[in-house]
Amino acid sequence: MQLEKILVPVTFLFMLIVLTLAGCGTHRDAYRPAAIPLAASRINLSDIPAVKSVLYSQYNEWKSVRYREGGMSKRGVDCSGFVYLTYRSKFGIDLPRTTDLQSSVGKKIARNNLQAGDLVFFKTGFFRKHVGIFLEERKFMHASASRGVMVSSLDEEYWADSYWMAKRIYL
Questions:
Q1: Distance between CA atoms of 88 and 38, rounded to whole angstroms?
Q2: How far apart are CA 154 and CA 47, in angstroms?
Q3: CA-CA distance, 26 to 132, in Å (whole number)?
Q4: Which residues share a beta bridge with 134?
Q5: Which is the catalytic residue, given 90, 97, 142, 167?
Q6: Where are the domains of the chain?
Q7: Which candidate in 130, 131, 132, 152 is catalytic?
Q8: DSSP state of 128
Q9: What radius of gyration, in Å, describes the C-alpha atoms of the chain?
Q10: 22, 169, 32: which is closest to 98 by C-alpha?
Q11: % of the chain exceeding 90 in pLDDT
Q12: pLDDT category, 45, cuts 50, 70, 90?
C-alpha cells in the first residue's frame, strides 16, 4: 500500500519528464530521408541573393502546411523536419533530423550578424527547443506548432524572449 503511494507520483513524474524532453522534431515516425531527394545542384550559402530566392520559393511551396510532431511531408511537418527538408532539397545538405542535433552543427554567430540561411534557435520551454531559418530583416521561416509553416519576426515578444542562439552552416 505504501509502495503504491510512492509509485504513482513517481511514475507520473517520469512520464511528464519523458513527454517534456520530446521537444520539437524528436519523433521519427515519418522520418524517411531516402524519400527526400538531395538538391540537384548546390547553391553557395554565401550567395545571399540566391539563398533568399531559394528560401522564399521554399516558403511559398510550404506556407500554411500544418504542424505535425515528427512530420516530414506536406501533410504535416515539425520545425526541425522543415529545416531538414529545406536544407536537403534546396541546398543539398544533410542536417541532423532533430532540433537538439541541429543546434550542434555549424558555427555559432551573433544575432546582429544573421544572414539568409542561418538557423535560429529558441528555448520555448523548460526542455523544449524550436528552430527556424533566417530570411532577412529580422524575419525567419519556421513550422509553428499553432499556425504551421509561416514567417515570424525575431522582434515579436515571444521569439525575442525565447531566442537562444544562431548557427551558420558551412559546406
A1: 5
A2: 22
A3: 15
A4: 140
A5: 142
A6: 2-168
A7: 130
A8: -
A9: 17
A10: 22
A11: 71
A12: confident
pLDDT band at 6 (very low <50, low <70, confident <90, very high): low
CA atoms lying within 13 Å on the CB side of residue 6:
3
- H or E segment and range at residue 84: helix 79-91
Model pTM score: 0.81
Mean pLDDT within 16-33:
45
pLDDT at 163: 98
Q: Is 79 a catalytic residue?
A: yes
Four-residue CA torsion sign, 117, 121, 124, 129 = positive
Distance CA 96, CA 131 (A): 12
The model's pLDDT over 69-90, given as tens digits with 9 standing for 90+, comes to 999 999 999 999 999 999 999 9
Residue whose C-alpha cell reads 519523458 in the numeric block: 18
- Mean pLDDT over residues 51-63, rounded? 97
pLDDT in tens, 116-135: 999 999 999 999 999 999 99
| 24 assigned to active site | no
Which of 54, 79, 83, 143 is catalytic? The answer is 79
27 is a catalytic site residue: no
Select the CATH number that applies to the domain covering 2-168 from these four: 3.90.1720.10, 3.40.50.2300, 3.20.20.140, 3.40.50.970.
3.90.1720.10
